[in-house]
Amino acid sequence: MKVMIDGFNLGLDKGTGVATYGRNLSRTVKAMGHEVGVLYGRGKPVKFKDPLLNEIAFFDAAGGTKRRLFEPTRLVLDAALGAFGFPVDAVPPTNAVLIDSMKSVFPAYDELWNSTHLYDHCNRTFNLFNRLGAVSLPGVDIAHWTYPLPVYAKNAANIYTFHDLVPLRLPHTTLDNKRKYLKLCKRLVDTADHIVTVSETSRRDIINLLNADPGKVTNTYQSVSFPPHVFAKTEAQVEEELAGTFNLQYKKYFLFFGAIEPKKNINRILEAYLGSGINTPLVIVGAPGWKNDEELRLLTALNGLPKSAQNKKDRIIRLEYLPFSLLISVIRGAKATFFPSLYEGFGLPVLESMALGTAVLTSNTSSLPEVAGDAACLIDPYDTQAMAEAMRALDANDAWRSGLEAKGREQAKLFSEDAYAQRLQTLYQSVVEKKRKLAR
Q: 60, 326, 375, 394: which could form a disulfide with 407 (CB 3.0–4.6 Å)?
């Protein structure tokens, strides 16, 4: 088959969990033997006669990804193109542009396409004209959109991944326009060939909140994959890297990694950690997400404590960004990962930590017990006292923590690439066969 995967989240400046999902999906689909094309919506057109200039324009860091100013004529054009199809340009590879440094954050692909400002135009088309934008991609069997996007591919089976319904379940934690979000989700549930999600928790939400046909919603879970060099690095090498780069001792710090936003429960993590009385440092790796003023104020206040009033400042280390290879080392070197999120459609940091041999403390709510099984310490994410007690136990009980590490590695195998590929293959075949039967 020929499978299109959208580059909406892949094209963002800062990585997201959906971008990680898209990369893993592209690599899995390509490993399954299918042809993969990735459709971006970058702001700089790639319409030069010279293929080299097209490739340069696509990869140019100054590629003009900013939105256009409000233009009345643009609305008319969007209305017309949205119905008949936004133009898509191929980006034929010349192998002149060196992208080795981007491989860890770039999807696997056979073809690249770009449609200038596609996702901005499609959002505007849906908001103003209440219809999905269209693209034409000849030869594509499946268009797998990794997020609820107001766009579809003509003459292809359109599959949309709904990771969760957090804007509807925890509306106070996101900035989405909830009315528009709900309208789009319902439209896609009605018009899509199939809906994919990543946990049974999310599948139930989609069926119950969006009134989706249960036979049209499939949970494929996720997988996590790491480049071979990740496991080629020895513990001694990781230990040296942590000491030399961050002055951290191997297995002598705790870790949180993820966006700094309300649903990640940062404030309660800090409250429980400071109340636990443990001296093992806590490393927080995460860029600011949305509605994070309260979390950032607390982190800033802790960093501003005078030396005489604390040894707490030195116990909490915040790193806003880490390159992929360093983040992997930081996860491997942690005593445990703290991820007591309020709600997750899947909870990739839990799986990533277990796969890398790090013990996990996480929530007993939403999808997280599905991912963690009995291989993690599960607590009520609203109970800071229980969280603090669990932190103390993880800090002091080496045997229990080692047992969680071993169980975690085994639990992670349930979400292997092979298992994920089999679930995807079964789904793709079913959807394409149904589409072809309806066409006949």
A: 375
pLDDT digits (tens, 9 = 90+) for 285-304: 988 765 556 666 666 656 54
Residues 428, 434: Cα–Cα separation, whole Å: 10
Residue type present at position 6: D
The confidence score (pLDDT) of residue 308 equals: 42
Partnered with residue 319 across adjacent β-strands are: 285
User: How far apart are the C-alpha atoms of 151 and 308, rounded to whole Å?
Assistant: 57
Sign of CA dihedral 26, 28, 29, 32: positive
Cα-Cα-Cα-Cα torsion 12, 14, 15, 19, nearest 10 degrees, comes to -10
Q: Which three-class secondary structure state does DSSP give residue 353?
A: helix
pLDDT recorded at residue 266: 93
What is the mean pLDDT of the segment spanning 308-320? 67
Token code pair at residue 297: 């104020």
Third-level CATH fold of 228-413: Rossmann fold (3.40.50)
Superfamily designation of domain 2-223+417-439: Glycogen Phosphorylase B; (3.40.50.2000)
Could you identify the residue written with the tokens 């106070």? Answer: 172
The beta strands (E) that lie in 235-383 are given as 254-257, 282-285, 316-319, 336-339, 359-363, 377-379
- For residue 154 the two structure tokens come to 């003509």
Provide the 3-class DSSP secondary structure of residue 164.
coil
Q: Are the CB atoms for 310 and 295 separated by under 8 Å? A: no
Q: Which of 4-13, 26-35, 222-231 has the lowest mean pLDDT?
A: 222-231
87 within 8 A of 71, measured Cβ to Cβ: no
pLDDT in the model for residue 307: 45
Please determine, for residue 175, whether its predicted confidence score (pLDDT) is greater than 50: yes
Q: Which run of H or E residues covers position 341?
A: none
Q: Is the pLDDT of residue 356 over 80?
A: yes
**Tokens of residue 70, six digits:** 């409000």
Q: Hey, how many other C-beta atoms are within 10 angstroms of the C-beta on 186?
A: 14
Same fold, 2-223+417-439 and 228-413: yes
Query: So where are the chain's domains?
Result: 2-223+417-439, 228-413
Q: State yes or no: pLDDT of 92 exceeds 50.
A: yes
The residues near 10 (Cβ < 8 Å, ≥ 6 apart) are 19, 22, 23, 38, 40, 106, 107
Beta bridge partners of 219: 197
Q: Give pLDDT, residue 151.
A: 97
Which pLDDT does position 309 carry in this prediction?
43
Cβ burial of 50 (10 Å; 0-12, 13-18, 19+) is: exposed
